[in-house]
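REQUEST FORM: STRUCTURE PREDICTION
Request ID: SP-0412
Submitted by: Lab K.M.
Chain count: 1
Length (residues): 261
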Amino acid sequence: MTPTAIALHQVDKIYTNGTVALQGVDLAIRKGEFVSLVGPSGCGKSTVLKLIAGLGNASSGRLDWGVSKGDRALAYVFQEAALMPWATVVENVYLPLKLKGQSLRASRSRIQEALNRVNLQGFERSYPRQLSGGMRMRVSIARALVTQPNLLLMDEPFGALDEMTRGRLNTDLLHLWEQYHWTVIFVTHNIYEAVYLANRVLVMAAHPGRIVAEVSIEAAYPRTEDFRTSPLFNQYCREILHHLSTGEAVSDPVASPRPTI
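STATUS: Completed
RESULT:
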């Protein structure tokens, strides 16, 4: 069995106003796995990521790590690119290294490697206003990758993009994951995106936030457009939609419309 990267055991999260964000969440993510969390707004998907990232504490339950604290290298990609508008692409990617006290000169090669990974060669001196939405998100991903993570947390990073750009970035992300063997936890509202990317899809419901189903995606990598248009792909999408519906998770479970194939 592949070792566990992170596990949550009976985790609850209750805010001071009494809102129960999570209740009884059990999940285990294996090293090198790509896991998608799907569910409606308010079901606790982002809360799970924040607890794993250490951006909050569970009200009860526990988090168990499969690696020591010194061996954890975690990066977080948020819903918005959140770039500094006055800074160039290089300066934006450099930010996490700057916060660690590393000089720009010493970081140049790592920054360029991260930009090369996301196909942004030639845009090093550009400013965010000069970039498309997809390119700005690539900068955000490069800023995460420059830290050389082994666990990548992604909170709906492509949700604001058009379908064509989202599809290209999905494929690029999978190529990077296959090459560098990160553990990825990916939050999305979009069933189709979740199925295309993941080894496993965890379906969450709201009020309180909880996991109501787990679907293993038994499709080989690398995944292509052939998989997106296959009967197997549609079967998985229907299965997840069923879990969302029976779990009373969402009234409109597919964030972006897609014609039935």
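NOTES: Confidence is low (pLDDT under 50) at residues 249-261.
Reviewed by: T.R.
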